[in-house]
């Protein structure tokens, strides 16, 4: 079932914005197992949740309400695209390029070609 | 050979064949409903009518034996009118169910009415078509008897091939009904084949009713691994799901039949799947990355001494992963590898058992079983352990007047079988009158069961006694092998071929307590046989008893998700093909072992499937020649010589424990069938004979 | 022929591949028929895998400790030559 779209809202004040941000954070965390299942990812739920947290942490210091609204809009767009399968595996995996747990770059050969191990981990 | 003329063209046919077979050889398609090559001729559908010169009426070609010089005409106006007329009669009482019938798209009636029937109907109002009550044949076969055209293929199959004589016809003419009449279910392990045989949608599959249409399925040819027969199957998938499993024709193995477990256990592939590597923390499993899991396993392996590392292979281990595991362990200087057939206590094999192929294979071949005229079963129930081979024995019973006897607990087979008690002394004594029959037989067979391997001394004794007995069968045809071993697990023959299961009982008894245990899909290992402080790794596709014992769980692929090699009980090497990809983070089994070898610092020399298969041929040359069953004359001669030297004695036999049967419930034997809802229903209905509730029994059309 | 003391401590497995009917494997087939019982009686726990397949050349593989393998071709040799070569193989500790 496609996720319903939400009307773009405007935050009344910081408290309202905080509420909206936390609600979106919870949506992301709750759907981590679903994302793995939908996109057939080789990741674990804790890894997905850590990555989501990292994204939110990057914007922790933002105080401008307009910017926060814009980020909420972008976040919701990403969420819909991920859950409705408008994104594909490759797009979702872009978030995990430097992920330590995947370790694919570490096992590639010196000339960048794939070794058995890098193919095994990538699948 | 006899010459007949079909539509003017001469064609040579074997004498005694039917006119319909002559037409097939000539390349002409004759429509038929009741005729089937593997069943007796009935001749009641009348769809195969052809015109024969100088015959007053059109002739049912399935029932007409060919005579030299016969002129058969299949394209004349008379034949066309006959076909249209027969089709009109069949459709007159056939309900208009196509939109809701499961068989739509693969229905013989649909196809033949389009091709051979009239283009218009003469029925102008739906004046009361015949209505017939649906019968309850069990949780597997759904009946919609309104659609039945009374071709009696199901009745002939059940009576001849499956040995289930409860299915029959009652009444005659318009009132004829197919069923069991006394409200019995069709309790045979081959019951699913009537679904394929029925030309219309009267008998369909209950577990996956209404779930697909035939044209949206992708077909993959593969081989079954639920038992050691290696039946040829076709896996039908839609997207990422297996929707059904159908048989393929293989005259040498399974003809056209598959057992119910093969056909219906696949819904266990969707439940309790291992999808991510797991590490145990206390009493919980936590998902982790492949790197972390493999690193942990490698560390644990390094911490144990060579003698303290053991591996156990389960029923679905393919040859590629067996050879990878064996090579890995050998590089670690560890030699203790076991098969689950020796579980649950991990006792090892009888000395020299795995050396000679003739010891552990079904030497007479599956096709050869049809020719037997006296068979002795020792510790095996072929109906439960190899249902397809059982149909061959039934054929021998019907056509060859074969006599059967068994040294085992009481068991019900679908042919007459004398029970000689459950002591191996009966085998050594050979005093019962049945043994006279065995000695006088032209094609005697002694079939030893894999259950004997739970006690290596019993297996050794039985093998030697069987060879001694075979030696006294002086009337046997030249080139015929009397001693056979029936495997019940798909991985067993490959494991023996590769020398995987070569640890003898004596060596196993001397080994120290295990500190590192690698379970390759093995779920039947008794927890008591593994020390409490051992580090256990489980690699498999389902989270069953084995995974519950593990410290690290590595998710592997099931048989529908990998391209792998299996060897059946007669030594035939066959390939399983991937119809799907393994779920989420699961990987190919041999690839997991190859990755582990890199983490352990002892990388295996092959990194591709071709490399592994080359290694397989290096270890056992039969892997280079798939789909062929190779005789083992040297091994047979040596096995007989070794047995002759051993001289099995009656005193020793008396000291051995009673023979037991390894399979108690046909429907719940391994991880996949235990996780299948359909198999659970079958177990309730057939093994425990608990009647279905009224709701389950009569699903409305 | 006595096999007493013939097998080294490091031999873990001996594999013998042969063709069922080909003339090149005749020597190996004869060797297996005559010597296998004696060898096994002396070393019952040593796996001696006898594998026949159509059209395969006669060869032997010895697997020693740590997975090291040695391969010998026995195609076209007589039974005595086969025996001599195999005795050499099983005595080595490669």
From TrEMBL, chain A:
A biological process from GO: response to oxidative stress
Describe its membrane topology.
Answer: Peripheral membrane protein
Name all Complex 1 LYR protein domain ranges. 19-80
List keywords of the entry alphabetically.
Electron transport, Membrane, Mitochondrion, Mitochondrion inner membrane, Respiratory chain, Transport
Can you supply one Gene Ontology CC term for this chain's record? Answer: respiratory chain complex I
Q: Which organism is it from?
A: Caulochytrium protostelioides
Where it sits in the cell: the answer is:
Mitochondrion inner membrane
Task: Indicate what this protein is called per its UniProt record.
Answer: Complex 1 LYR protein domain-containing protein
The entry sums up its family as follows:
Belongs to the complex I LYR family.
TrEMBL record, chain B:
Q: Which PROSITE patterns match?
A: 2FE2S_FER_2, 4FE4S_HC3, 4FE4S_MOW_BIS_MGD, COMPLEX1_75K_1, COMPLEX1_75K_2, COMPLEX1_75K_3
Q: Which is one GO molecular function term here? A: oxidoreductase activity, acting on NAD(P)H
Q: Tell me the Pfam families matching this sequence.
A: Fer2_4 (PF13510), Fer4_NDSU1 (PF22151), Fer4_Nqo3 (PF22117), Molybdopterin (PF00384), NADH-G_4Fe-4S_3 (PF10588), NADH_dhqG_C (PF09326)
SUPFAM superfamilies in the record, alphabetically?
2Fe-2S ferredoxin-like, 4Fe-4S ferredoxins, Formate dehydrogenase/DMSO reductase, domains 1-3
Q: Which InterPro entries match?
A: 2Fe-2S_ferredoxin-like_sf, 2Fe-2S_ferredoxin-type, Mopterin_OxRdtase, Mopterin_OxRdtase_4Fe-4S_dom, NADH_UbQ_OxRdtase_75kDa_su_CS, NADH_UbQ_OxRdtase_ferredoxin, NADH_UbQ_OxRdtase_Gsu, NADH_UbQ_OxRdtase_Gsu_4Fe4S-bd
Instruction: Give GO cellular component annotations, separated by semicolons.
Output: membrane
4Fe-4S His(Cys)3-ligated-type domain residues: 78-117
Alphabetically list the UniProt keywords: 4Fe-4S, Iron, Iron-sulfur, Metal-binding, NAD, Translocase
**Which cofactors is this protein said to need?**
[2Fe-2S] cluster; [4Fe-4S] cluster
Q: Name one GO biological process term.
A: ATP synthesis coupled electron transport
Domain 4Fe-4S Mo/W bis-MGD-type stretches? 217-273
The 2Fe-2S ferredoxin-type domain covers 1-78
Family in the record: Belongs to the complex I 75 kDa subunit family.
Give the protein name, as stated in the record.
NADH-ubiquinone oxidoreductase 78 kDa subunit, mitochondrial
Lineage, highest ranks first: Eukaryota, Fungi, Fungi incertae sedis, Chytridiomycota, Chytridiomycota incertae sedis
UniProtKB/TrEMBL annotation, chain C:
Instruction: Mention any Pfam family matching this sequence.
Output: L51_S25_CI-B8
> Which Gene3D superfamilies has this protein been placed in?
Glutaredoxin
- Check the record and name the SUPFAM superfamilies matching this protein: Thioredoxin-like (SSF52833)
Query: Could you tell me which SMART domains the record lists for this protein?
Result: L51_S25_CI-B8
| Compartmental location | Mitochondrion inner membrane
Instruction: Return the InterPro entries for the record.
Output: NADH_Ub_cplx-1_asu_su-2 (IPR016464), Ribosomal_mL43/mS25/NADH_DH (IPR007741), Thioredoxin-like_sf (IPR036249)
- Membrane protein topology class: Peripheral membrane protein
Tell me where in this chain the Ribosomal protein/NADH dehydrogenase domain is found. 20-93
Q: Does this entry carry the keyword Transport?
A: yes
Q: What does this protein do?
A: Accessory subunit of the mitochondrial membrane respiratory chain NADH dehydrogenase (Complex I), that is believed not to be involved in catalysis. Complex I functions in the transfer of electrons from NADH to the respiratory chain. The immediate electron acceptor for the enzyme is believed to be ubiquinone.
Protein name as catalogued: Ribosomal protein/NADH dehydrogenase domain-containing protein
